[in-house]
Design goal:
Blueprint lengths: L1 E4 L47 H32 L1 H25 L13 H24 L4 H32 L5 E6 L2 H13 L5 E8 L9 E2 L2 E6 L3 H8 L3 E4 L7 H10 L6 E4 L11 E6 L2 E6 L7 H35 L5 E7 L5 E7 L34 H8 L7 H7 L3 E3 L6 H4 L15 E3 L12 H14 L2 H17 L5
Helix pairs in contact: 1-2, 1-4, 2-3, 3-4, 8-10
Length: 517
């Protein structure tokens, strides 16, 4: 989605009548008596304000956490190294420590790392945090060169990385708390959805499926003021027509106006709506609906005075891909060393549990359609592939995938290995040899990829991954079209930051064992 923050400039626009739903020149929104999102009638006879106190409290908590984390690291490093170099303690440590603290906090502020809209969701929060700390390290190094300080290396190569580790940990813990509160129905931003009933229904379904994102659709406006179920859309009341959007925002204090596709929305009407939302605290969010592209590929540019949504090409080559290759090989090598004792133990358990080999080899399709042999710990009885035809009628898989929740071919040890994805550890050797990546689309079978249409074949433009968006979003429980959509989204919107988020979330998905069978 493309988000546009509407800053207050004071002119809310004129009054709109209910019957002007399709009058393109009709202005939208005047300050009127507020309407209840639940009942569509006036409340208390006075304008209500948005319930955003929790956002300000959360922002203050994040700022306090960053400040205390930085101060803790600076004090700990100064205390440890200062004792060893007592001569410099009183002269230089206080200046360097205080300067580092101010420099880090100033970099966080200039990078807008405390902007409420990025706190608590997405990779952008951590991207801005990383950019701020990198900026602080650069300025600190330049300052050290300017004053010829011998101690500056300590603060660049020890203090800044330590601050990064502690602040990221604190932010992650705060985010986990916020997501838990949102799952319980708290700390949600009230949303007014404006568009066609079908597209609004999709938005409502997504907001309910992912409550941690913090959206709660409280009211709907449609072109004719009617919904799918009478005056409701999936239980959310329709409070007016599309010409009434600004009026309800000013009256009821919604925090987000989500504009979904509808023939009514022309460029002039969208611009007029943005004008009429001025003076409110609402964020206007417009779904471009041209394609499902997000993240670093989307840019808004003004060309010849026209705002254009610029979509850059997907990055299949270049410096970032080289970095990804290096991270893949080094990461896989480190994980092989880390999990070597576990893999030896699992191999012995597989041998003792049932006759057959330890490692199961299977042909899969990789980048650009090239086949390779994938390695997994054997989780089924010997000859399981030949028995698949007999179980075809009991297939519970999505689309082209064959899956069964209680597959009789799975061994006792195999069921445990599958639940926690331990059977996939040998694929680290596929990553080492370059046929797979740590993060990427799911590696398909040859017969599966043979059925791909042109759209789905875009999954093969990059290396398949040991984990991916499908792994952290439900795995085998995902419908086929949703699994394909997630894979294509990764191919289109790949970034190093997205890889880092997926790897982090994979740990939680594996420990929970959801969707694995």
């Amino acid at each position: 989605m493309l988000s546009k923050r509407v800053e207050p400039t004071g002119d809310p626009g004129g009054t709109v009548q209910q019957g002007d739903a399709h009058q393109g020149d009709a202005p939208q929104g005047d300050l009127v008596r507020p309407f209840s999102p639940a009942r569509g009638r006036p409340v208390n006879g006075a304008t209500t304000r948005p319930a955003s106190e929790w956002e300000q409290r959360y922002r203050r908590t994040v700022i306090t956490g960053d400040t205390l984390a930085t101060a803790f690291v600076v004090a700990a490093i100064g205390g440890f190294f200062g004792v060893r170099d007592a001569a410099d303690w009183h002269e230089k440590w206080t200046i360097l420590a205080f300067g580092t603290e101010l420099l880090v906090l100033g970099a966080l502020m200039s990078s807008r790392a405390w902007t409420p809209v990025v706190l608590g969701q997405g990779a952008e929060e951590f991207r801005r945090l990383g950019r701020a700390l990198f900026m602080a390290a650069v300025v600190l190094s330049l300052g050290g060169i300017a004053v010829s300080s011998r101690n500056i290396k300590l603060w660049i190569f020890v203090a800044i990385p330590a601050i990064a580790l502690v602040t990221v940990t604190v932010r992650y813990l705060l985010r986990r708390w916020l997501h838990r509160r949102r799952t319980e129905g708290h700390c949600l931003r009230p949303v007014l959805a404006a568009g066609s009933p079908d597209t609004v229904r999709d938005l409502i379904a997504r907001s309910r499926k992912f409550p941690h994102l913090g959206w709660r659709v409280d009211a709907v406006c449609t072109a004719d003021g009617r919904g799918i179920d009478g005056d409701e859309v999936d239980g959310v009341p329709v409070v007016g027509q599309l010409t009434d959007v600004a009026k309800h925002v000013h009256g009821d204090g919604y925090r987000v106006v989500a504009v979904t596709p509808d023939p009514y929305w022309s460029p002039d009407r969208l611009q007029r709506l943005a004008w009429n939302l001025e003076g409110s605290d609402a964020e206007m969010v417009v779904a471009p609906v041209l394609m499902e592209v997000a993240g670093p590929r989307l840019h808004v540019d003004a060309v010849l005075g026209i705002p254009l949504l610029r979509v850059t090409m997907p990055a299949f080559t270049g410096g970032r891909r080289v970095v990804k290759e290096i991270v893949d090989r080094l990461g896989a090598a480190a994980l092989v060393l880390l999990f070597a004792p576990l893999m030896v133990l699992v191999g012995l358990l597989v041998l003792l549990d049932s006759p057959g080999g330890v490692v199961y080899r299977q042909r899969r399709v990789g980048k650009e359609g090239r086949e390779f042999t994938i390695f997994k710990f054997r989780t089924m009885v010997h000859g399981a592939h030949g028995a698949r035809a007999e179980l075809a009628e009991r297939d519970e898989g999505a689309g082209l995938l064959f899956k069964m929740r209680r597959d009789p071919r799975v061994t006792r040890v195999g069921a445990v290995l599958r639940r926690y994805s331990i059977d996939e550890l040998p694929q680290l050797f596929n990553v080492l040899t370059g046929s797979m990546s740590l993060v990427g689309p799911r590696p398909p079978l040859p017969e599966e990829s043979a059925e791909y249409g042109p759209d789905i074949r875009r999954r093969l433009l990059v290396k398949p991954g040991l984990t991916g968006l499908w792994q952290i979003s439900g795995r085998s429980d995902l419908p086929w079209d949703e699994a394909v959509r997630l894979d294509l989204r990764y191919v289109e919107d790949w970034s190093l930051a997205l890889d880092a988020v997926i790897l982090w979330k994979t740990l939680r998905a594996v420990l929970q064992g959801q969707g694995a069978y």
